[in-house]
Design brief:
- This protein is of the alpha/beta class.
- The chain has helices at 2-23, 48-62, 83-89, 121-130, 133-141, 181-189, 202-207, 219-225, 252-256, 260-294, 305-323, 327-349, 351-358, and strands at 33-39, 67-72, 94-97, 146-153, 160-162, 176-178, 193-195, 213-214, 233-236, 245-251, 299-302.
- The strands form two sheets. Strands 7-6-8-5-9-11 form a six-stranded mixed beta sheet, with helices on one face. A five-stranded mixed beta sheet has the order 2-1-3-10-4, sandwiched between helices.
- α6 (181-189) packs across α11 (305-323) and α12 (327-349) crosses α13.
């Protein structure tokens, strides 16, 4: 009797286990995506290249290893200024740079990086997320099979390093300067010669006289590149790049091949890194500026007011000319101008008014 009961119970248990096994969902191994990322930045460049390494690491962590990204600095896999094309072609899946580098492909790209006398980093962020800036950016990059994501702002940049003083607008005539984007076109209109160089070539070109002046980013990177050893005068403010935004861009096919949850992870990691980038610049530029002034004896000079007024006039002309080149540039410029009016009015009675009270004007002025 006991034996029959045992066999009966065992049979029921075996059947239950078998039924469970039959009805259980199939367990599939999660697919792993192995991507490559190319950048326009020199190896180990603080914040810029570091931010790309950080982004790759965070995507790997947040995806639990389902997306693995190997990062290559400028020249390690493709030349710096070929990053856009490499991602567009699908040779690699991700790139990082500044949108104004690609003006030759579509003039509208310049507005997503920096516009002379335009918005600062906070205003640019507001345009991307509170206006239609990001939507227009995606529309601009769509013909190139790319999906852009904001990569953080450098904040207001410095005016650059010069081997002669700039007392009037005429001092730009004949000047050979490394300066990209719309700012470079303003310099050209002022009579200068624009030379576009990646970061890794700036110091040598300035030291050897290939260029007479250069802008790069700000005190943190200028100190790192040793530009104070190759030029005498350090000018401010960065009228040409008042809130330069960086970018991450993804091959459209690669991005859209990801499951939705991984797309959200990529976007979230980009946004996280975007905020990290600006925080790093704000935290580190002040200390580096003090080092340049006190230890490296850099001659810090403010552009004369009349020079700034003349540059502003030329800038208005350049922006209008560039905006007229393509329908996309016209569309983006109109959005940018209208949004700047809104945030500018608010900024004048909030940020500017407040800082004018709490922060005395820097005493060094040329």
């Amino acid at each position: 009797m006991k034996r029959r009961d045992f066999l009966k119970k065992a049979g029921v248990g075996a059947a239950a286990v078998a039924a469970t096994a039959v009805n259980a969902p199939a367990v599939r191994a999660a697919k792993t995506y192995n991507w490559k990322m190319v950048t326009t930045w020199p190896p180990k460049l603080p914040v810029l290249q570091d931010g790309c390494e950080r982004l790759a690491k965070r995507i790997g962590e947040l995806s639990d290893g389902r997306i693995k990204i190997q990062v290559f600095a400028a020249g390690e896999l493709v030349p710096a200024l070929e990053s856009f094309q490499a991602v567009s072609d699908g040779t690699v899946e991700v790139g990082s740079g500044a949108a104004y580098y690609w003006a030759g492909k579509e003039p509208a790209t310049q507005w997503f990086s920096a516009v002379p006398f335009g918005m600062n980093g906070q205003g640019m962020s507001a345009w991307f997320y509170g206006g239609d800036g990001l939507k227009l950016w995606e529309e601009t990059y769509a013909p190139f099979n790319l999906i852009p994501r904001p990569g953080g702002s450098t904040g207001v940049q410095m005016g650059g390093w010069f081997n002669k003083k700039i007392d009037t607008i005429n001092d730009f005539k004949g000047l050979k300067m490394r300066i990209p984007g719309l700012g470079g076109k303003v310099l050209a209109k002022a009579g200068g010669t624009v030379v576009l160089l990646p970061g890794g070539e700036i110091f040598t070109s300035l030291e050897r006289g290939v260029i007479d002046a250069t802008e790069w980013v700000g005190p943190l990177h200028d100190l790192r590149l040793g530009l104070y050893q190759a030029a005498k005068y350090y000018y401010y403010p960065g009228w040409h790049e008042p809130g330069t935004y960086l970018e991450y861009f993804f091959n459209k096919k690669a991005y859209e091949s990801l499951p939705k949850d991984l797309q959200h992870i990529v976007d979230a990691a980009c946004t996280e890194t975007e905020h990290w980038v600006l925080a790093q610049f704000d935290a580190l530029n002040g200390q580096a500026l003090q080092t340049l002034i006190n230890d490296k004896k850099a001659q810090l000079i403010q552009f004369p007011d009349q020079v700034m007024a003349d540059l502003k006039k030329l800038s208005d002309e350049v922006v209008a000319e560039e905006a007229a080149k393509t329908p996309m540039a016209t569309k983006v410029n109109e959005s940018f101008k209208n949004f700047q009016k809104v945030v500018g009015t608010w900024g004048s009675v909030s940020e500017k008014a407040y800082y004018d009270i709490i922060q005395p004007k820097f005493p060094l002025k040329g």
